[in-house]
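testing teh design pipeline on a random one, pls ignore if ur not involved
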């Protein structure tokens, strides 16, 4: 049978979700007779829970043919090499989740198995000492990875901190000027459904305008105006696993060094982020309202700022989880309209990006074959669950004893998928990879080692190398990391170099 192609796409909602969707769809669908329209209302503020990303954001920018350094300049961006976790493993502790590998594998045996062997031979060197981006970040400097790394020590990546509002503004201008996306200012007051198949047919704005489409994309944030309110898609709540349900956020003046990493510091009822931008610092306290009041949270956040607040703190209320179906009828939700996972590992924009890519991989015609939505929803559920497990590990593995919030986190029953990973590593140091994992083995390793969740023995195959030989090899790795880190430049200097349109020169030698 001949296909009945999509002719019009309507995106309801702007912000990062709406404009990332508009840009990628317009880029990938270029040449097809598909009109893309985006509705956004100046009356609805964007949430902006965090302003940090993971390296996948650079894949997105490449996909829409945008230069990463141009985006950094437009959004007051800074470099992010990972996340520093302070006080999670107990007061006074600190470990790092880098965008890179640890050490060099040998004879098909992962490096961490040799590291475990050396620990048993009284070598106390932390795992982080074998990771180049950690050494660079701790020095407050920046170094880019080479295009062709000489060995695993040079395999790492980087991401951004940026002003999410400026990022959306940049994407909005580009989508309209370059890609032919139509922007309409307005507030949706009514959604029209077909009486026979239940599909969405049109939306009506407050000024009476009626806009119809074939495919509707819900980027309306927590309100989930189309998927949740109109189609009534239920929400799968994960509050029993991730108990934080509030955040207070405020920007302040920058008084400390311009660090190339996000800071996550555990406190009495949650954790606080620090995200350095070029001219200010983003701060927020994510907490459990069952353990702390909003007034107390605001007071504690303000008391811990490094500089003067630039506005009054604002409160964000949320539920962790996702809509059971993110694609229902002819509507696909992207971003907060689909679900929310707290910004502990900066996955908000990643879920936006993967949702758009997934839609393009299962792009429908006007017949909306149910198998497309079924597979889209299956993958989406897996992706959310994998990220959820990674976040739950942070809370469950904490060592903040004697504090009600943290004691309750350790006592929670884990999803079997996470319990399986923990058994695999703490039993034999294995790092299994599951379908649609967002976080790869080095990320899981960083968490397990950071919290001291280590197996009692190493892989027997690591005995192929003697402890004496390993000691020499490990010393050479540390020396190589020190030499490469010496090439890094202060973060502020690196950003000054980014004033040019070309890639800054500082990179690890290939």
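output:
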């Amino acid at each position: 049978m001949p296909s009945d192609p999509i002719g019009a796409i309507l995106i309801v909602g702007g912000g990062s979700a709406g404009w990332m969707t508009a840009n990628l769809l317009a880029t990938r669908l270029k040449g097809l007779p598909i009109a893309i329209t985006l509705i956004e209302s100046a009356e609805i503020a964007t949430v902006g829970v965090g302003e940090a990303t993971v390296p996948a954001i650079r894949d997105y920018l490449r996909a829409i043919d945008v230069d990463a350094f141009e985006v950094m300049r437009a959004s007051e961006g800074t470099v992010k090499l990972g996340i520093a976790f302070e006080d999670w493993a107990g007061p006074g502790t600190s470990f790092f989740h880098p965008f890179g590998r640890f050490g060099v594998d040998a004879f098909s045996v992962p490096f961490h198995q040799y590291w475990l062997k050396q620990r048993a031979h009284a070598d106390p060197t932390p795992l982080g000492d074998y990771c180049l981006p950690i050494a660079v970040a701790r020095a407050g400097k920046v170094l880019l990875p080479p295009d062709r790394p000489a060995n695993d020590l040079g395999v790492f990546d980087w991401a951004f901190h940026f002003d999410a509002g400026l990022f959306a503004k940049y994407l909005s201008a580009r989508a309209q000027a370059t890609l032919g996306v139509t922007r309409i200012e307005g507030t949706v007051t009514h959604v029209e459904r077909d009486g026979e198949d239940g599909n969405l047919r049109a939306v009506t704005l407050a000024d009476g305008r009626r806009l119809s489409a074939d495919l509707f994309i819900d980027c309306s944030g927590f309100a989930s105006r189309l998927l949740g309110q109109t189609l009534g898609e239920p929400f799968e709540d994960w509050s029993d696993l991730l108990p934080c349900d509030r955040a207070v956020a405020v920007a302040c003046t920058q008084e400390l060094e311009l660090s190339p990493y996000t800071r996550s510091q555990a406190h009495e009822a949650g954790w606080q982020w620090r995200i350095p931008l070029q001219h200010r610092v983003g701060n927020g306290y994510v907490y459990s309202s069952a353990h702390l009041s909003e007034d107390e949270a605001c007071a504690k956040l303000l008391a811990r700022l490094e500089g003067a607040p630039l506005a009054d703190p604002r409160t964000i209320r949320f539920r962790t989880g996702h809509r059971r179906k993110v694609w229902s009828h002819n509507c696909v939700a992207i971003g907060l309209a689909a679900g929310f996972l707290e910004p502990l590992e900066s996955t908000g924009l990643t879920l936006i990006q993967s949702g758009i890519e997934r839609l393009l991989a299962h792009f429908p015609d006007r017949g909306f074959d149910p198998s497309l939505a079924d597979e889209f929803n299956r993958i989406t559920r897996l992706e959310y669950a994998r990220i959820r497990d990674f976040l739950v590990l942070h809370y469950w593995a904490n060592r903040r004893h004697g504090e009600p919030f943290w004691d309750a986190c350790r006592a929670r029953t884990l999803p079997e998928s996470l319990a399986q990973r923990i058994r695999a590593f703490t039993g034999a140091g294995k790092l299994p990879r599951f379908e649609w994992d967002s976080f790869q083995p080095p990320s899981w390793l960083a968490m397990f080692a950071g919290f001291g969740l280590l197996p009692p023995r190493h892989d027997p195959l690591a005995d192929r190398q003697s402890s004496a030989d390993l000691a020499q090899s490990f010393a050479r790795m540390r020396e190589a990391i020190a030499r490469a880190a010496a090439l890094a430049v202060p973060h502020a200097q690196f950003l000054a170099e980014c004033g040019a349109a070309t890639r800054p020169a500082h990179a690890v030698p290939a």
